[in-house]
Specification:
The complex is a heterodimer of chains A (255) and B (311).
Chain A (H helix, E strand, L loop, with lengths): L4 H17 L1 H22 L12 H4 L1 H27 L3 H4 L5 H30 L7 H25 L3 H17 L12 H7 L3 H14 L6 H25 L6
Helix pairs in contact in A: 1-2, 1-6, 2-4, 2-6, 4-6, 4-7, 4-8, 4-10, 6-7, 7-10, 7-11, 10-11
Chain B lengths: L3 E11 L5 E11 L3 E5 L6 H9 L6 E6 L2 E2 L4 H6 L1 E4 L11 H11 L6 H10 L15 H13 L5 E5 L7 H16 L3 E6 L2 H7 L2 E6 L2 E7 H8 L1 E8 L16 E2 L5 E7 L7 H10 L4 E8 L2 H14 L1
Parallel strand pairs in B: 3-8, 3-9, 6-7, 7-8
Antiparallel strand pairs in B: 1-2, 1-4, 4-5, 9-10, 11-13, 11-14, 12-13
Classes of the chains: A mainly alpha (255), B alpha/beta (311).
Chain lengths: 255, 311
Amino acid sequence: MRINYYGFRAIYLHEMDRFRRTLLQSLISPVLSTSLYFIVFGSVIGNYVQNIDGISYGSYIVPGLIMLTLLTQSISNTSFGIFFPKFNGSLYEILAAPISTFEMVLAFVGAGATKTLIIGTVILATSNFFVEVSILHPLLMIFLLVLVAFTFALFGFLIGLLSSNFEQMSIIPTLVITPMVFLGGSLYSLDMLPPFWQMVTYFNPVVYLINGLRFAFYGASDFNIWISIASMIFFLVLCISVVAYVLKKGYTIKS
Amino acid sequence: MSKDLISINNLSKTYKNGLKALNNVSLNIKKGEILAMLGPNGAGKTTLISIICGIVTPSSGKVNVDGFDIINDYRQTRSKIGLVPQELTLENFETVFNNVSFTRGLYGKAPDPKYIESVLKKLSLWDKKDNILRQLSGGMKRRVLIAKALSHKPSILFLDEPTAGVDVELRKDMWKSVEALRESGVTIILTTHYIEEAEAIADRVAVINNGEIIVVDQKKDLLNKMGRKKLRIDLHEKTDTIPESLSKYDLELSGNKLSLTYSYDTQKQRTGITNLLQDIRDQGLKLKDLKTEESTLEKIFVTLVKENNEN
């Protein structure tokens, strides 16, 4: 057995099955909350805000809201996926199975990314009901969505590995990711900020992700697209390195 | 039953907190046998099993399974092994059938609903196949763990306290299942607190204490070598003291003064029973009844552990 295809498939389908079982929580909840954002910010407040880079405010915030969902969902899906068997002890059978660490991580992260991409696609479709959405570079958009979904699913896997209780699992998505997305230009252009806060925002990595996606939608961005892609790839490589190090040390899952 | 299927050589494990769970353990397990590992809590039984299965990393030493190294050739070794853990660790929100199928997939086997059906039927779980795990009793969950361990047709089965918390009827059912598995060629290694269990089903017994194996032997040989028999001699009339001429037999007089107990070694060529009975008759004591009692594995186990702790 050079590659454990069935082992990979078992973990992947098992995780996707959990998504199906908790459909209300996994899919309906993010779609509902994003719809509320569109109603409040896009339709109500948007009527009083002038166009940004020639784009109506309602349409302008679509990439930011998709990115908010993508980041929070990919982290929570995968962190829960690995944390739960660790918590209830059923992780023993994955550790005792003839499956490599790479295959195991790929299955968890692949399932987390798939779930996130499904939710992202549904939200993109939902946004069409509220605002006009055009996609100038569809292939670039798909590339960025897949890259972000995988990268942050891997980040979520790391959080799940390192967390020892449910509270720790929710700290990063709630206290770090959500503020970073809101302060990362999801609902405004960086040009609208005073110079000092613009400078501060450059240290927020999420800014580059949102701007990259906005470029794929409307061709408008505060940065060159390559800066956005490079920052995503840098974060992906960082996550791969840390996960590989943690798993090699066996931290929290293997004595 | 001949070839060594598992070879453990100088295996040691020290956890990060400094606990030395295994100390230079060497053990060979033969193909087709049932080996029972006995030991008090914290003796190192679960650590030993966990290392062979790949859940715990050894500090030093080597383990080969069917000629393959457990670290370098982990895919070959793990695919041969099934593990029933001590704790009821299950995905509680999945059905029985999906749970068992999931384990089969993890071990690299293509889905085979017919085989899973046969495993569930053998373990009387087929009528529960669509039940969510959390709806099952503890005993049923224990059976699901066994079904999961058998889902990929392992040639080696580790049972870590398989009948802990299980009622007597189910325990005996499990013993039958274990015996049937052995007959189908599966090598079985079990840890247990129930000495009765080891006595009933094991071929060989290994006693572990403080991370070291203090004895490994055929169950029968262990009983023969270490077992002592007792002969209880019931008398018709009370005797207040043991007569002087019988002192060489080291007899024990019962509290009601109506019986004498004589301990003897079954391995000795002369047990001394004939002479004892002759001397009792010469003393004028009238015999009412004779009973013999053999040492159990439990008594041997307790003696071994006690001696090991004292040394």
